[in-house]
Design goal:
about 350 residues, Helix Hairpins
């Protein structure tokens, strides 16, 4: 099947970059937002998809695009890449990332992790136990950034096993079985100390309550307002009914809403300014509700698009359904020039 010069150009351009030039591959910058990265990826993915582009190397280019998207769409992988300039999913870059981890932490970013409740070890990049051996002996040299940095011992749980490191260029592990009682005391001492080695005083009940007070106020105030409200029945409706049949409009966007005869009599003595303030509150409630619902619609649409795009192929039917998904609340906001 023949292909156009434009189809060949986009494939060869993607393949012309080095494997770790993720920003150049997706034609974005380091400062580009998440939505800009996603938009550029989708545009290029459609152009390079083997079902749409008959060039013999389109499949290769499509895999390169997916690899760049995998890194730049994941905040953790993107942060490692921005810091090291290497592919964070590569076992060699994962080892160097472990060496660049923050000093003082038991395990650097990208280093192997001890998997509690499971047998053996599990590495952060998904490689089996041999990666952890590689990281242990070559991942960081001396200093606190390596997977097992020089100095302190780390005790996991209350089973009495201790992994001890002694610094230098060739760290190793020593496993020691201690009694249950001494292991429990060691764990308690570790939890009672700050990072600088000073004992930490337990938090008082008052301090705990003080820290939770803002959250309690946010939860309690609306409940109390509802309980002590004079009238729990709604005073208006955005849909005309037999009860709410007197139309009003909001002052800024002329959004229609309806009140009942009881409302008219109750507020007949109020000034125009007071009624305008009331209409503005109704308008703000309407817009806030539509924005919340529009946000849920957008999240749903993005999820459908993500589901349609696989690693090596895109379900074009699902993609069309996602792109044409109805978004009535967003349409209302667009009609008001709020979106």
């Amino acid at each position: 099947m023949s292909y156009t010069k434009e189809q060949e150009a986009v494939v060869l351009k993607v393949l012309s970059y080095k494997s770790h030039q993720f920003y150049e591959i997706l034609e974005v910058k380091k400062t580009s937002s998440e939505s800009e990265v996603k938009k550029s990826y989708r545009k290029l993915a459609i152009k390079c998809h083997p079902d749409k582009n008959p060039h013999p190397r389109s499949s290769e280019a499509f895999k390169v695009l997916n690899k760049a998207w995998e890194i730049l769409s994941d905040p953790q992988k993107k942060a490692i890449f921005d810091q090291t300039g290497t592919d964070p999913t590569s076992r060699f870059s994962a080892a160097s990332a472990g060496g660049a981890g923050g000093a003082g932490s038991g395990f650097g970013s990208g280093a192997s992790h001890f998997s509690s409740g499971r047998t053996g070890f599990a590495s952060a990049n998904g490689h089996p136990f041999e990666d952890d051996l590689f990281n242990m002996f070559f991942g960081g040299g001396g200093g606190g950034g390596s997977a097992f940095g020089g100095g302190p011992a780390f005790t996991f749980g209350g089973n009495g096993f201790t992994f001890q490191s002694f610094g230098g260029q060739d760290p190793f592990m020593r496993q020691r079985r201690t009694t249950r009682r001494s292991g429990a005391r060691g764990g308690a001492r570790t939890q009672q100390q700050h990072a600088d080695g000073q004992p930490r005083q337990p938090e008082s009940l008052f301090e705990s309550f003080k820290s939770l007070l803002p959250l309690l106020l946010v939860l309690i105030v609306p409940i109390l307002s509802a309980l002590f409200s004079d009238d729990t029945n709604p005073e208006y409706s955005f849909v005309q009914t037999r009860e709410f049949n007197v139309e009003r409009t909001t002052p800024r966007y002329n959004i229609p809403f309806y009140v009942n005869e009881k409302f008219v009599k109750k507020n007949s003595q109020k000034t125009k300014r007071q009624m305008r303030n009331y209409d503005s509150k109704v308008e703000n409630i309407f817009i806030h509700d539509k924005r919340a619902k529009c946000s849920r619609e957008q999240i749903r649409k993005d999820q459908m698009i993500e589901d349609a795009q696989g690693w090596f192929s895109t379900d074009m039917e699902k993609l069309r359904q996602a792109e044409s998904m109805p978004m009535p609340n967003c349409d209302i906001l667009r009609g008001l020039n709020l979106l």
